[in-house]
Amino acid sequence: MRIDVFTIFPEYLEAALGVSVLGRARAANLLGVGLHDPRDHTTDKHRSVDDAPLGGGAGMVMRPEPLFAAVEAVAPPRPLFLLAPTGRRFDQPLAAELAASPGFSMICGRYEGVDQRVADHLCDDELSVGDYVLAGGEAAALVVIEAVARLVPGVLGNDASTEEESFAADSHGGRVLEFPQYTRPASFRGLDAPEVLRSGDHARIARWRRAEALRRTRQRRPDLLDPDRAPDAG
Ligand code: JF5
After folding, report:
1. Does the beta carbon of 61 sit less than 6 angstroms from any atom of ligand 1?
2. 160-200: per-residue pLDDT in tens?
3. Which residue of 22, 46, 119, 176 is surrounded by the most CB atoms within 10 Å?
4. C-beta of residue 116 within 8 angstroms of C-beta of residue 144
5. Mutate to test the pocket of ligand 1, among 12, 134, 144 (most ligand atoms within 8 A of CB)
């Protein structure tokens, strides 16, 4: 899997990509990440990547020239996504789709926005990781990389754990939250783990876990069971 990222803070991404699951995936050549700084493609003496909004207003907008030049110099794997709160919501089905592909790329926006010609004529789509505004797309890019990379075969030690977890498709093709997990000690400060988990009755344990998963999904995320109840439905 190959992922290219265009960012004016490559060191921010490099730090996070060097440790834990992503660091090991890169060391094992299961994941290749290319980091590209649009500032290297500026031609003015101040190497400026932003400018005032046309039409006036507060803040700064990322200029199109350095972003177009950086992307054209690399010809990165497509699709190329712009990370922005205005984008299509990134979710687990999209993570699975991208994990099954040879690669993709992302542009991290900064400041108050990115010149619209970048979204309209350079990128293939816009992605949002949630309904909040970040100072820049870098943290969103890390979210996407981590969610996708851990689904690439071999990146996690245990492939079964990615199938049982929250948001994996259940037997009905819907999505449910994880069941609660416990470890030793069975009794901790007078707080007892459910007796069923110590029963050794694997069929009963499986039934209990399915029921708990459904119960907490109904209680916490009813929108996952019935999309009409999603906060943004309609
Ligand atoms: C950004 C303009 C990019 O805030 C985000 C974001 C939120 N969800 N997904 C991405 O990206 C930074 C802010 C303003 C363009």
Report:
1. no
2. 566 556 665 444 445 899 999 999 999 999 999 999 999 99
3. 176
4. no
5. 134
Does the CB atom of residue 83 touch ligand 1 within 6 A?
yes
- Using alpha carbons, list the distances in angstroms from residue 152 to 15, 34, 97, 141, 168: 21, 17, 11, 17, 15
Distance, CA of 41 to CA of 29 (rounded, Å) = 28
Token representation of residue 197: 């988990």
| Whole-number Å distance between alpha carbons of 23 and 96 | 20
pLDDT-above-90 percentage for the chain: 87
Residue 1 CA to ligand 1 centre (angstroms): 24
**Distance from the alpha carbon of residue 22 to the mean position of ligand 1, in angstroms:** 22
Rounding to the nearest 10 degrees, give the CA dihedral for residues 205, 208, 214, 216.
Answer: -100
Q: How far away, in angstroms, is 83 Cα from ligand 1 center?
A: 6
What pLDDT, in 10s, does the model give residues 24-63? Answer: 999 999 999 999 999 999 999 999 999 999 999 999 999 9
Which ligand 1 atom is at minimum distance from the Cα of 83?
10
To test ligand 1's pocket by mutation, which of 5, 13, 83 has the most ligand atoms within 8 angstroms of CB? 83
pTM of the predicted structure, to 2 decimals: 0.91
